[in-house]
Amino acid sequence: MKNKKISKTNAMRMLDKQKCAYKVHEYEWSEDHLDAMSVLEKMSEDAGAIYKTIVAVGDKTGVVVGVIPAQNELDLKAFAKVSGNKRIEMLPLKDLEATTGYIRGGCSPIGMKKAFPTYLSHHILDEKSVLVSGGKRGTQIELSPEDLMKVARAKVEKITQEKDE
């Protein structure tokens, strides 16, 4: 019996084209548990930090992408400011696939239909490796923060709400 071949997603093809090293992690998913915290629970302890992709719309720039740690929340005011907007709101879920080419639970910051302005949480600078959606449900791509910054043409900014300590 042959090993199961992983079907390449746009995100993987883009990483291959840029000659970036990455590792694919697959996991069982369900329609009820597509959030980043559910993914976090399914991944092994030795995998990199899990980051979620958030797509929003700014009043001046249009679509912008944020990539933040799974356990953090996006700071909409900070995100608006760094992206050159006065106001920012989440992209309606019904528009996600038409806008990015990806569906909920499989939205990768790499390989979207268009190259949208992308901002990575400053936490990424503390990571050895990070996991982001591989472009389909049940698939995560592990890569270096530097490669993610390069391939997503992303800026690193403080875009998360800090938890009270």
Automatic annotation (TrEMBL):
This protein's record includes keyword Lyase: yes
EC numbers for this chain: 4.2.-.-
Superkingdom: Bacteria
GO biological process, any: translation
Enzyme class per UniProt: lyase
Keyword Protein biosynthesis: yes
GO molecular function: aminoacyl-tRNA deacylase activity; lyase activity
Pfam families on file: tRNA_edit (PF04073)
Start and end residues of each YbaK/aminoacyl-tRNA synthetase-associated domain: 38-150
UniProt keywords, alphabetically: Lyase, Protein biosynthesis
Similarity section: Belongs to the prolyl-tRNA editing family. YbaK/EbsC subfamily.
PANTHER family: CYS-TRNA(PRO)_CYS-TRNA(CYS) DEACYLASE YBAK (PTHR30411:SF0), CYTOPLASMIC PROTEIN (PTHR30411)
Protein name: Cys-tRNA(Pro)/Cys-tRNA(Cys) deacylase
